[in-house]
Amino acid sequence: MSEEAACKAKYKTTPTEENVVAGPANALANVFVYVSAGVPATQKFTAPTTPVILDQDGCRYHPHVLGVMVGQPLEIKNSDPLLHNIKALAKKNRGFNVSQPNAGMTKNVTFTAPEVMVNLECNVHGWMHAYLGVRPDPFYAVTGPDGSFSIKGLPPGTYTIEAWHEKFGTQTATVTIAGTESKTANFTFAAH
Q: How many domains does the structure of the chain reveal?
């Protein structure tokens, strides 16, 4: 990052990689948590029209891990006064390779199929990575700095919950919800 003065100037200390962000008691941030099974196939969900924003600022993607619904716009924004070239490495969706040479540029894209995860990278700055979960329903979340997440609105039933992390892989839990109760699912990741 030291090659890009405009980006380096945005940080008071040397930035670190975001592939493992641990908080108090080793709480793990940037885990994509989603319902992978249990939602009735007959239940259809309308994607929000409000875009999810992925900002390129300080030669980093913000947020590092994010989710959208199938058909929901993803707005890719360049807040840096220099060239970024965002490339989506998708397996179930159509990939793209978009150049944004100036600050203030935006590009909206949508995805047509569920996919966990779509890798996003910058062809100009090899350290820039983000990960996008594309889901057919709104039942997903990304853990915060304290490792917590919340998935709301699930009807009563038994569900498989998956937690994906870029370095530590995937963990799975089964949760049964009756009525309007809340349940807790804890995931423990171990270094490989």
A: 1
